[in-house]
Structure formats: structure tokens, C-alpha cells
## 1
Amino acid sequence: MTYKLYYAKKTASMGIRVILEELQAPYQLIDSTVDRSLPRPAKQVAVNPNGWLPVIEWDSGAMYEAAAITIFLCDRHSEAGLAPKFDTPERGIYLQTLVYFSNSVQNAFQLTYYPDRFADTKEHEASAQSRGIRRLRETWQVIDDQIGSNHWTLGEQFSAVDIYLFMLTTWLRQYLGHPDVNEFPNVKRIADKVLLRPSVQAVYQSWIANPEY
């Protein structure tokens, strides 16, 4: 079985691709875009009417939402050990952190990248963007505090949560007023270790060459 990953750089589909690499699962990239003025694959839009990425397809189904895809893939390929087992204490914090990334941190990014989605008028977009920047600092501080002295985000074991954390740090842009990752030393420490993994080196070549790309 080969997964089909609807994919574009600078999107959460890059994080899902890293997970597929770590799982050593066969996959095919289906080129797409976040530019709504350009055509996108019909199947992508059929699965996710929002038109966003990532979307993943397999022999018996398809789904969207990066956190949901992460949970699905890691449970489907549990032998890779990218997720805590169901009966371990770490399972709860694993699920909590992925949902927090998706629901809180990513929402703050959306406020800064797409303020028009959160404002009724053009005049109010700057206020939405400003609130998003403050919210980014708040949410990343929560994660930094959660990590504490842990070796990895959840403790001693590397997991998909660490990949997701790294992916989100690559979205920080100083020209938009985002906080610098160095403000969150525990987050930075984890992200730096994730960056060394061969899967990340392969997928994030463009970002490594130019973090502002």
C-alpha cells in the first residue's frame, strides 16, 4: 500500500511527510498549492472542502487535519514507536499536546498569516494580527514550560510530537513580528535535535538553506 500525500512546501504537509519518512511507509506526493487562485487537485478538495493541506489518501480512505493524520499514521504503524502506547501514562499528554498544537498554536499562526479570516473589515486586520502575535508568544511559552528539563517533548522518548513541534517552529517569521524561537529555550533545544534527523534533513532542505523562504 502506498499513501498519497497532497503536498506543498510551507504547509503542514511537510510535517506529515517527515512522519511518513520516519515510519518508512511508501508514499507518493501529489503536488498542490495553498494559493486559492490556482487549481488544486479535485480529490483534495473533495476530501477537504476547505481546500487546505495536508490531505492523505490510502487504499480504503482519506482524511485531512495534520494532528488527526499524525495520530492515525502513528497508530497504524505502531511498530515504529512514534506514539506512546494506549495504556501508558504518556498517551494522554501526547494527545493533549498534538491537539494543543493544532487548536491553539496553529490558530495563532493563522491570525498572523491570514488576519482577513478574523476581521470584518480591512481596518481591523492589523488588530487581529497583533493579537495573533501575542497569542503565539503565550502558546509557545506553555509548550516551553511543559517541556521543562525533558529530553524530548514528552519525556525520554522521541515521538511524532517532536516532529510536529519542529514543523511549527519553521513557520515563525520575524518580518511578521513573530517571537524568535530563542525566546523559548526548551522548544529550541528540541527543534535543534529534530533538525539533525535524516528525515528532516531530506524534507526541509529548502528551509534549511533559507529559513525565510
## 2
Amino acid sequence: MTEITNNAVQLPIAVQQFVLHWGEMGGQWGVNRSVAQIHALLYLSDRPLNAEEISDTLRIARSNTSNSLKELLGWKLIRRVPVMGDRRDHYEAEVDLMQMLTRIAQGRKEREIDPAVAALRICTEEAKRDAAISDTARQRIVAMQDFVVTIDDWYQQMMSVQPGRLMMLIRLGKKVLAFLPKGKS
């Protein structure tokens, strides 16, 4: 449900567009639109905001704001900060883009990759013991497990790289191929 109050803050057009677009992108990534919009608003804010200000600015229900803030806190994309003279909780976003990327990647890994690795390990063990499974199915399960484990290993390696060096690696893009042996991949 949407609440529109008289306390709504008028955002500059560019900020409105960013918040709306971030909300749409969040939906594409499987994140609730309100969660993504609140994250965008806090990311662009030059000061910590309280839940009431967030609700009024985005014209969303206070309960939706509260639930969205809890989710963002769980992802460690925002934090509570004290504001002198105000007993309410105020929030600010992580603004270091590499930290933000790292936290999102870690959260997605925990929610998506880790369970896939565990499930594929069980499936592979079962496929090796099950005489009724075809060689094709067995090979494809093993190939899927190898692939997901390789992605997981790559992730672990990348998270141990210092942020500045990781950004250099990202910027290299396909130029890194020059360092690999030529021939079949």
C-alpha cells in the first residue's frame, strides 16, 4: 500500500530518475522495488535519513520502509547512525562501490551458490552410486558440479584480491587474454 503524505520532499529530477531506475533494476535482479529505491535514495543522500523521511520522500508505507530497511541492513548495504538530538534511527548507505559490490556478491553467493554447491555434491554422490541413471545424466551432473565449484573457487580467489587491484583486473577486461596461452580454450 502506498501512503502519500504532506511531508513529501521534492527530489531533483536526476535523483528521481536514479531512484526509479534503481528500483526497476532491483526488480530485474530479484530485489523488491522498494528495497532498491530506498537503497538508491540513501546512496545519493548527503546526510543520514530516518524512516519517516524515507517513507515521505518515496511515498511508500512506513511498514514497507521498515521491512525494506531490515533487508538492506541484512545485506550490510546500509547502517544505522546516530544523529545528535534525535532519538530515531537514521540510516546511511555504503558509498564505497567496491564494498557495495563485495557485499552484494557475498550475499548472493550465500543465498544461491553455496546451496547449489551443496545440492550438486549430493546429486553427484548419488549419481555415482545409482546404476539406474544414464551415463549422459551422470556426466552432466558431474559437469554442472565442476562448473559451479569452479565459479565458487574463482569467487573466493577474487575476494582475496585487494580492492584496488581487483578494480584494475576488472578494467583490464578482455586484455587479460593476452596473458593466456594461445590455442584452443
## 3
Amino acid sequence: MSNSLERLQKVISQSGITSRRKAEQLIVDGKVKVNNKVVTELGTKVSKTDKVEVNGVEIEKEQLRYYLLYKPRGVISSVKDDKHRKVVTDILADIPERIFPIGRLDYNTSGVLLLTNDGEFANLLMHPRHEVEKVYLARIKGIPTKRELGKLLAGVKDNNEILKAKHYQIITTDSKRGVMELELTLNEGKNRHIRRMMNQIGYPVTKLKRIKYGLLTLKDLSIGQYRPLNPKEVKQMRNLALKNVED
């Protein structure tokens, strides 16, 4: 059995309790013990058999898991909800590991959602400067002009935030019903980003689905279904995020 060494901050972040950066600060602050001894050196490496404690609590070293869920509408992108509504981890209740969603999809938004117990992987994909593209299919009320759609690329202001799309494509236009379907690509993800952006140009979203996250799509999944990512997909997503930083 392999007993390879990993950096202490990486092991802590992979347990899902905090990010790597915060793990580093915990180490420097003397809040971490390895085999009952306080460790403050960031270069410290540990094996899978070493006992690691953070703030007096031993971390659980779980097998790292990665899942792609076709999230339904009407489900909270969280591990719990104080209003007792259904959360995404309820759908994956048979998974023994303590997984959590990578980012969020709104309550009324469906589509690609990733879940994992790898905190480092999650933070890598969510960091805004890594610019991992996300593609959405939006049904909107009204038929905007080309000039109005151009505002999405330039950016619109809402609550002191600039909201913009990297790309858009008109999928269908139904003049009789007064609706349009748009494919929108983002490389950031502010709270209710697309809904707020479309409201600002006067064309509210009536239905929204995320159809692609990086290299991952909903292929072969029905709504409410999920599947594990294979090692190649995990590596590709990690490399994609790192490549965007290097570029």
C-alpha cells in the first residue's frame, strides 16, 4: 500500500473543512497538531497514517470523491437548509463520504452541479481568477435587439457589481409568444448572475439551466441523476483551471 507524503495544508484542505490558504494560516497560528505535536512549519509533509488535528479535532481522511449531478429545480445547492427544504446532498444520500457542492445553482435553476469532498479541488474551480467557463441555456421574456444583447458583453451594473457574459448565442426566437432562448457563457459566477443581468436590460429569465461546466456536460444524465467523474475528467478540470491562471 502506498504511504506517500503530502503537504500538511493540502491534507487539511482535502478534508473539506477549510481552504488551503486558511489551512496555512491555521498551521502558522499553532492550531494544528501532527501525532499530538504542534506543527507551525508550512513545508511539513504527512502520510496517510499520521494523525492530524485542527483546533483539537482530528480530521477525517476520506477517499476523495467527485460527482456530476443534473440538479433539478426546487432544490437547494447546499448540504443543509434552515427552512428544511430539499438539498442536493439529499439526492446523493447513498454516498458515504461527506460531500458538498462546488459553488451554487439557484433554487429555480437546473443543470450541471459538481459535488466533492476535495476542498482544494473545489476552491481551485471556484476561484474567480481561474475563469472556468460555465454555459447556460436561458429562456427570457421578450425579444431583445442586437444592441441590447451587446450590453451583456460590455457589462451591466447591478448593486455596485458589474455583470457580464463572455459570449451569447441566440438559440430560438418566438415572436408570437414573445420569448427567446439564449445560450450564455460566463467565466465568473456572481450570485444570481444571469437573472440579475437580464433584469437590468429589461428581459427577465423565466427558465434557466446550466448545460456545461468547463469540459463537463449533462450527457447521458436525466434530471435528478448523477455520476462519478472519472480520474481523467478530474485531471482535465484541474488542468483547465490552472491553465487559465498561466495564460
